[in-house]
Amino acid sequence: MKAPEACEGIEDVRGAIDGLDREILHLLGRRARYVAAAARFKTDQMAVRAPERQGAMLASRRAWAEEENLDPDFIEELYRNILSHFVGREMDLWRT
After folding, report:
1. Does the annotation place 49 within a ligand binding site?
2. What burial letters (b/e) apply to 7-20, b meaning 16+ CB within 10 Å?
3. Per-residue three-class SS string for the chain
4. How far apart are CA 42 and CA 20, in angstroms?
5. Residue 61 annotated as binding?
6. pLDDT in tens, 31-77
7. Would the annotation count 5 as a binding residue?
8. Could you tell me if residue 1 is inside a domain?
9. Is 30 annotated as a binding residue?
10. CATH code of 15's domain
11. CA 17/CA 14 separation, integer angstroms
12. Which domain holds residue 51?
């Protein structure tokens, strides 16, 4: 993958973005497997929801966003969606 400044046309840019999106999806798949593993260690629904953990996670993701010059509000919203999905999935796994 070329560095952004080395791209010679829109196809280079689009190809790089597609590759990055594929990597993001691969990482989300890995995250899902860790969520499934975490469900084995939770003792009740409150442990699955872990609101204090979610709050700490969102705060750290906001800080990481700022370090990467990304909009922390956007990243928080993105992670709220990720957490909502994966907590729901973990709850389903925990119940089984």
Report:
1. no
2. eeeeeeeeebeeee
3. CCCHHHCCCHHHHHHHHHHHHHHHHHHHHHHHHHHHHHHCCCCCHHHHHCHHHHHHHHHHHHHHHHHCCCCHHHHHHHHHHHHHHHHHHHHHHHHC
4. 33
5. no
6. 999 999 999 999 999 999 999 999 999 999 999 999 999 999 999 99
7. no
8. no
9. no
10. 1.20.59.10
11. 5
12. 8-95
